[in-house]
Amino acid sequence: MENPLQYFAELTDPRVERNREHLLEEILLRAMAAVLSGAESWNDIEEYGEAKIEWLKTFLTLPAGIPSHDTFNRVLAALDPAQMEKGFVAWVGSIAKLTAGEVVAIDGKALRGTYAAGKKPIVHMVSAWAESHGLVLAQRKVDEKSNEITAIPKLLEALELSGTVGTIDAMGCQRAIACQIIAKKADYVLAVKENQGHLHEEIQDSFRMLPADAVAEEVDCGHGRVERRTCSVIADLSLLEKASEWASLQGVVRIQTERYHKATGQSEGQTRYYITSLAPDAVRLNRVIRQHWSIENQLPWVLDVGFGEDLSRKRQGHAAQNFSILTRIALNLLKQDKSSKRGVKGKRLKADVITPICSIAGNLICVGPATSRFTATYY
C-alpha cells in the first residue's frame, strides 16, 4: 500500500517561517494517525499525540513536542484545500485501478456541523465513490452561492473514468455533464426528475406509448420486507424532442419498486426514471442503478456514524474541507481491511490497538526515523 504522505509533499506551508515550531509533514502524519485511530476533534488529535509520544519519537523529530489542538486547527484551516485534494486524488489513483464497467457513483453531502447562524453557509461536498473497490476517489467543495451542478464538472475533471459507468442523481442530469462523461470514454446513467421537466414528461410518455425493448426483474427478501424491482428499457427515442443533444444517448430507463413490509402488512411503490448511454440491457441497468445507491449506505452514513462528521464543528477557514480529506483517507484505508467484519468505528479502535497508524489490510506501519521531508518508511 502506498504511503499517503508522499502525495502531499508539494503542499505549500501557509505559516510564516519564523513561527514554524512544528514540521508540516509531522503535523499531517500525526493528524492522519489520530483520525485513523478514532480522533474526531482537534483536542482528540492533541491527546492522541501526548498518549503516543514515546512511539512517535521513534520516527519523528518532534522539535517542539506535540502541537496543541489550536496549532492543528490553525494549520489545517490555512492549508490550500485544492492542493490537499490534488494529493488525495493522486494517492487514491496509486492504490486503485478502476476496472471496465465499474460503477462510479457521484453524490453530495452537507457537513452539517459547519453551519453557524448569521455566518458562512454550510459546507457542501460532492464525492465520487468506486462501488466495487469501496473507495472515495475524489471530492470537491460546492462553491458558496452555487450548487452541485457547478461542482460535478470540476470533480469529473480530476477523475480517470475510462471504461467505467458514471451514475449521478437528478441534480447532475445536465447535457454538459453527460458530454463530459462521454469525453472521458465512460458511460452514464443519470436520474431524471422534475428538474428536467420536458425530458421527464417525454420519458413518461415513451413508457405509455412504446413497447419496452428489455425488461428484468429482481426480488429481494431481508430486513423484514420483500422488494421487487422491475427495470424496463426503451431504445426508441422518437418521443424525446431533444434526444440528439444528449451525448451518446441510447435509451431511457424506468425502475418500478414494490416493497412489502412483513411486520405491518403494508405495501408501497415507487417509480424512477433515467437516461443512459449504455445499451438497452435491463439486467445490467437494474444492477448499475442499484449499485449507485451504495454511496448512500457506504459513504454519508459511514462518515456520520463511523466518524461523527455531522457533529463536527470545524468552521475556521478551510478546516472542515481539509479535515474531511483526512477522514476519507482513513475510510479508504479501513475499507481495504478484509480480516474483520466489524464496522468502521470498530476498526478504528482495532487500528489503535494493533499499532497507532496502520491500514489493517495493508499492514501500513510507520517505522524508522523520518530524516527528510515525508520520508518515513511504510510497509
Question: How does this model look, in words?
Answer:
A hairpin with a 2-residue loop joins strand 6 and strand 7. The chain is built from 13 helices and eleven strands. It is elongated, with a radius of gyration of 23 Å. Helix content is 36%, strand content 21%. The protein starts with 23 loop residues before the first helix and ends with a strand. The C terminus is likely disordered. It folds into two domains: 138 residues, no CATH class; 217 residues, Transposase Inhibitor Protein From Tn5, Chain A, domain 1, CATH 3.90.350.10. The strands form two sheets. A nine-stranded mixed sheet has the order 3-2-1-4-5-9-8-7-6, sandwiched between helices. It is α+β, with helices and mostly antiparallel strands and 379 residues long.
At a glance:
The protein is built from 13 helices and 11 strands. The chain is of the alpha+beta class and 379 residues long. The chain has 2 domains: 4-80 and 318-378, no CATH class; 85-301, Transposase Inhibitor Protein From Tn5, Chain A, domain 1, CATH 3.90.350.10.
